[in-house]
Write a structure and sequence with these properties.
alpha+beta, Aminopeptidase, seven-stranded mixed beta sheet, globular
Length: 181
């Protein structure tokens, strides 16, 4: 990624997506499909219950600096850790982080980490209400794949072992709980 001057954020607010309050028009993370999703599909996906989304903005501002989305997912037990396989349940319930993105001028200053940690805390709350064994996400493949892979590995994510999706990673909810509580 080209070196850019990071913008300082004074007071960061991460709030549930509200189409009327969050200005997505100038957002660009540098990955076209994510930018298009945020601007063109997010409203429909939230309305239809496919995802829930949280936006990062500066206090008293509307411009989206970063965001993440969560959705429900089941993964094959055979692809996860041995203890999933011993449950004799074919599909393990997890929470899926469908997207995490940070505006290009904000990248490299910790906003991505803040978003993932906020998502992890929210996932813990959700897992207290319903079963969810882990948090799962797919590391996007492009020129910055290695950087993304290392970012998630440093946060505790590990390969799920799905041969159809080798870039799918997970972190057990027990590890999230042990780390954040």
């Amino acid at each position: 990624m080209p070196a850019e001057t990071a913008t300082e954020v004074t007071a960061l607010i991460i709030a549930k997506f509200d189409k009327a309050l969050h200005d997505r028009s100038a957002f660009s993370c540098g990955f076209g499909p994510i930018d298009t999703f945020l601007k063109s599909s997010l409203s429909d996906h939230t309305r239809d219950g496919l995802v829930a989304a949280w936006m990062a903005v500066e206090e008293n501002e509307r411009a989206v600096l970063g965001f993440y989305t969560l959705g429900a997912l089941a993964v094959r037990a055979e692809f996860g850790p041995k203890k999933w396989q011993r449950t004799r349940i074919p599909d393990i319930p997890v929470i899926y982080i469908r997207a995490v993105a940070v505006r290009k001028d904000m990248q490299g200053n910790g906003l991505g980490t803040a978003l993932v940690i906020d998502a992890m805390k929210r996932c813990l709350d959700i897992s207290d209400q319903m079963g969810a064994a882990a948090i799962v996400l797919d590391v996007l493949e492009d020129a910055y794949f290695d950087r993304r892979w290392n970012f998630y590995a440093n946060l505790g994510f590990q390969p799920l072992g799905d041969p159809d999706n080798p870039h799918r990673v997970y972190i057990p909810m027990a590890d999230v709980r042990a780390t954040l509580i």
